[in-house]
Amino acid sequence: MAGLREMAPEGVTAWAERITALPVDRRAALERALSVELPRYVPVRPFPKQMAALLLVDCLEVLYGGAARGAKTWWLLMEALRYADRRGYGALLLRNTMTDLEQEPDGLVPLSKTWLEDTDAAWHPGKGGGGYWRFPAGATLSFGYLKDADDHRRYKGVAWQMIGIDQAEEIRSAQYLYMFSRLTRPAGSDLPLRFRATANPGGRAHDFLVERFDLLAQGPDPRTGRAFMPARLEDNPGVDQAAYERSLAELPEVEYAQLRHGDWGVTVAGAMFKVQHLAAAMDWPREARLVRAWDLAATEAVPGTDPDYTVGVLLARRGEEEWVVDVMRDRVAPDGVDRMMAAAALGDGQNVPIVVEQEGRSAGRREVAAIRRALRGHRVYGVPPVGTKPERAALAAKWVNTGRVYLLPGAWVPEFVSELRSFPQRSGHDDQVDAFALAHNWLDGRGQGLAVGGQIAAGRIPEEQSMG
Fold it and tell me: What are the structural domains of the chain?
């Protein structure tokens, strides 16, 4: 290990590049001298970049990836199987959903079956999908997912020596950090503790990963316990690179830069919200006007599904500035939505008006009337959506982009910022954007004597619902 560090003193990235650039005979000699001993359960030979990352065994946390088709999933499975022949060893591999885990042919579960079905490892399927492998020495390799906000709770009380997250850009940052609490070993054990992740640029955890691994500088020192190993298409000789290059060339410019070159600094071209102009604030002025705006859904999340969220944004405005005070966000059944709204109304107080996006005609009016009855004593307003989502979000985006919107501290902030950044180009949820835009437009219209924003909803709200 020391000799390899001396060979590339400028850091782990140059180290891997030097390995890749060596002549075949010298590279083979180096790999023999510094080879990672992998058990027979790994039937493939690591590529040079994978080998370089495997050699970071003393690093607690390693992020591997960047570009698409960099052989990230194979590397992660190698890491998980590394000590499968040791008694007491346990590894857990996670993805965003069970569907992702089991996707053919590149998902972690089918890949593990390709590698292990003809060995003495025994597969134990799970009741709801997934499962785990048990090895003759007593080691285990389990599979799980972190799709919903509380999915990390299913792993409480269990410990592993290696935890890996595939496509970590899809995972909530709070859940990513929580999984470190499941990483431990018995007293006297010499099994190394390892947290491993793969990722591409983009996704809900993009900012979190950029900051955590200093990805724009790509300069973390593995001696700090955290390292980033970039992997690109050229690092995977098992792929027809020319053919895949032609496929990637069809992508828009930003997605091409992210997936072809692993560019963590590029932003979505034409993104509506320039989130770099958002500012942090510890408090909001008490003389400000307030509104709690809701974008409603009524579907609980079950494994393998991805329903919309119910979101309530509490927004304050004074003059030409706004403060996002609080965001409530969950996927619950109708009775859960009622409890969310009641809790928010109780906390906000009767002086804070409540605005609800009113879908449909008579059905929407009945829903708003039911909410008004349930929240008796509070002012509840239904606002029919008019125009496309980007059109409704345009005024709020203008305020964000000119540095007039502040965020108060809260666990909701990373998800809120991530959703604003991705709107409307990337696939995914936009419920927080809808609720934020609704709150902004309502305050904007209220300042003109209307119940909702500008001309959008003028004349659309029954007279008894207007604040005059």
Answer: 2-261 (3.40.50.300), 275-465 (3.30.420.240)
